[in-house]
Known about the structure:
InterPro entries: Protohaem_IX_farnesylTrfase, UbiA_prenyltransferase, UbiA_prenylTrfase_CS, UbiA_sf. This protein is an all-alpha fold. The protein contains 15 helices and no strands.
Amino acid sequence: xxxxxxxxxxxxxxxxGVRDYYELLKPRVMSLVILTAAVGLFVAPVPVxxxxxxxxxxxxxxxxxxSGALNMWWDADIDAEMxxxxxxxxxxxxVTGQDALALxxxxxxxxxxxxxxxxxxxxxxxxxxxxxxxAVIYSMWLKRATPQNIVIGGAAGAFPPMIGWAVATGGxxxxxxxxxxxxxxxxxxxxxxxxxxxxxxYERVGVPMLPVVKGDxxxxxxxxxxxxxxxxxxxxxxxxxxGGPIYFAVAVxxxxxxxxxxxxxxxxxxxxxxxxxxxxxxxxxxxxxxxLFAHFLALALEGALRMAGWQMDAWPIWF
Length: 319
């Protein structure tokens, strides 16, 4: 079990600021959750009143923030040793681990309960499972136990569009499953590119990320394989009720770009100088963030055009 007692010995600021607590919620991750959940809700075939839609997206965002706070509470010991995370609120001594735990648990209960009120019991149950999956199954178990941590744990980040869809429809469909699959298949190559770049950090704290356990060569092979498998999943969405020619064009463009980046990672020379080492991986990692935003914004645009009566009847829908 993670030892969080050390946080009590860290010199605390007199009063943690609002920004310190806000940082516990992982706002950058939350922005992606908000987008994907909102798109899942917006493109669903059942209309939702704008006030209900806003309230439910807020609940999902709060649930995502709760997961982030619980993750930071549990990982405070290793966060203090990693260059990328050492300035987070707990290791930096701005917030205690106990406060982060209390915040995470409180927001978890609040978000699930309120989503049951504004959405429905199914979507609330899905949100509760997502928080549990990220905080317990991924953070407390998989992350420090297996190099497949990010593969299995990536499901937690893939649930938000399914939750948004479930708020509108009360269930799941091929469209929501494909949105889930898009994020699920995107997560490993996205995160492994960063893991190669930050390999020394993970090795120092004993987290068995794939580059630490299997090395860069195996990780690059896996990045290429997952990126190849991701492309047909992304393209399949174009031929559903929520897809269309605009989404198809975006998917072709961004998957070709992602595949080119994965290929560049795969063929990179191991003898690269220290100054240039892993620049390719960092570039692909940053580009992969735009990849996911582009796909979901394209789905949102297709939904807006359908609402405006611009649906192309000739566009092939296979599902």
